[in-house]
Amino acid sequence: MNPIVKTMMQSTAIAAAGLLWAGVAAAEGSASIGSAIYNQQDELLLPEGFREWVFIGAPLTPHGLNNGKAGFPEYHHVYVNPDAFAVYQRTGEFPEGTVIAKELVLLQKGDYKDGSKNAPSGRGFFAGEFQGMDVMVKDNARFKATNGWGFFNFGHNAPPYLKASRAESAESCASCHTANAGKGMVFKSYYPVLR
Ligand code: HEC
User: At residue 92, does pLDDT exceed 80?
Assistant: First the structure.
């Protein structure tokens, strides 16, 4: 064969193989976005990159409307890992391995007692600094006792958050979700995109 044609064919084959490999790598990468990872002490590692997951909503419990001591101050920015969200959209159920991150965010300093302030858009509440991180993981085998969901607290403070966290007791987290959100454990009614 003409050596030039042969070289061209070889490089085309190499380029094709490279593309194929990139495709596989991308598929594998996306399959693992946000997957729960545990260390040897059975602690969940702080999810990485959760602020780029699917943002499903921001319930707000300001100190100003809760006698100055909201249990979860104040905005709750809630994210679901993208693969689980895609399954939810198809089936209406969160699949095994779903990770939901709730980041607490304080309000900006208010002009009024209730914590609200004036902005060009009107009087309202506006997000200030990050202030903590709670996570739920769906894993029926691991968290059978709490309706298949594990609960983790990575600190209710400004970042940096804990790098790893042990599952919380049923009393500190799951019991309230069971009592008020039902067996599904997720408060779906507060997130328009889940309804
Ligand atoms: C007193 C009741 C109560 C307790 C205790 C509680 N939660 Fe929740 N949690 C809620 C409610 C209500 C929502 C949804 C509305 C909101 O965020 O204000 C929620 C939302 C969440 C969400 C977002 C998904 C969802 O179901 O809306 C996560 C994640 C979460 N909680 C984790 C935790 C963790 C971790 C703990 C323990 C450290 C905990 N929760 C303790 C009531 C509770």
Answer: yes
Compute the distance between CA of residue 105 and CA of residue 90 in angstroms, rounded to an integer.
31
CA dist., res. 139 & res. 79, Å (int): 18
pLDDT, average across residues 92-112: 97
Residue 185 · residue 174 · CB < 8 Å: yes
- Residue of 26, 50, 8 whose CA lies nearest to 134: 50
Give the burial string for 32-48 (b: 16+ CB within 10 Å, else e): ebbebeeeeeebbebbe
Q: Quote the ligand 1 centre to 171 CA distance (angstroms).
A: 12
Q: Check residue 28 and give its pLDDT.
A: 43
Q: How far is the CA of 177 from the centre of ligand 1 (A)?
A: 7
Is residue 193 scored above 80 in pLDDT? Answer: yes
Mean pLDDT value of segment 126-132: 98
pLDDT over threshold 90, residue 23: no
Ligand 1: which residue has its CA nearest to atom 18? Answer: 59
> Residue 115's closest CA among 131, 128, 130, 98?
128
